[in-house]
Fold this sequence. Notes:
The chain has helices spanning 30-33, 249-252, 339-344, and strands at residues 26-28, 46-56, 67-71, 75-80, 83-88, 94-98, 113-117, 122-127, 132-137, 142-147, 151-157, 163-168, 170-171, 174-175, 177-181, 187-192, 211-214, 217-222, 225-230, 233-240, 266-273, 276-283, 286-293, 298-305, 312-316, 319-323, 327-328, 332-337, 352-362. It is globular. By secondary structure, the chain is mainly beta. It is built from 3 helices and 29 strands.
Amino acid sequence: MKASSIIVLTMFCLFGCTxxxxxxxxxxxxxxSLENDKEIDEVPFRLTETATVNLELTDSVILATGxxxxxxxxxxxxxxxxxxYFFSAKDGKYxxxxxxxxxxxxxxxAVHDALYDPxxxxxxxxxxxxxKVLQYDMQGKCLSEHNSRGISAxxxxxxxxxxxxxxNGQTGSHIHGLGLWSSRFEPKDSVAYPLPPGKPVxxxxxxxxxxxxxxxxxxxxxEDTLFRANRSKLVPILAVDKGRLSIPDEIMLNxxxxxxRSSYIWSDYCLxxxxxxxxxxxxxxxxxxxxxxxxxxQLRFRRVSDSNWTGFPVKTGSTxxxxxxxxxxxxxxxxxxxxxxxxxxxxxxDTYNFVLLKMKWEK
Length: 363
């Protein structure tokens, strides 16, 4: 579905809108909320449980960065540019990893995207440099290798019997289409999204569109609209109204015009957990962290910083941390705590890679 086919509701107040109806799409009034961008400190949900798992550091696995790709009941999977690493969800012990950097068969130059299949206990890796999709078991044995065919991102679809969803190419902020693949990366379905006329032909890894997850749902945030990915189709969930503050592609992708970005909302990304949208972005060289209630389209929490994004307060024991989710379940949020917060919790960064923090919430 093209973004232009979305019917947008009229906004009735500064920080709210009419909730979603059967034939209409709810709108987050982001642009108008910035006319009075005071911070809102009260978190709109109650945390019913917080739990931490210390992820083991070993001589062979010392991770400076990690991207959270799975929270299976028994496995925690992290990735970075060099590989994919598996830890026990029970005690954080390092189990195994995929570390196959190279230019030969069964190897990748970098992990640009990765997904974990908790049924087959395998991992699929996307290498944009070599234009390959490779599949490995948890011990790092290469199971298959395929031409990526212009794919720019991958996600696991548990509701589709372990299928794989792909973004098929990207020009600026626009994707060209979606593909549906079997767990063995055999093609099952695809749909094309024609590029709107007048859009520049450009590709930039720094603004590559990617999937996010909300429980069993796979979501995609593109062209200021959050979609739920259903097989190879996109079903709009809500729109983020940036108005005149939406950054044009010709400014976002042109480094010679980077000073013009400050007049627009950019570098925005979001996660959906239940009714709550966790939205981060930059505007006028300030870093915003918002939580919106999508059932009412109301802004419920906002933190603003001149130097970096901040989060919402969470108490772990007697220690209060400022955190932001990196992965979302239907009623749970997950994030990785790094060295500063590990030290505050009394965890030795020389012994553990990260601390995984899981937070269950209710309204």
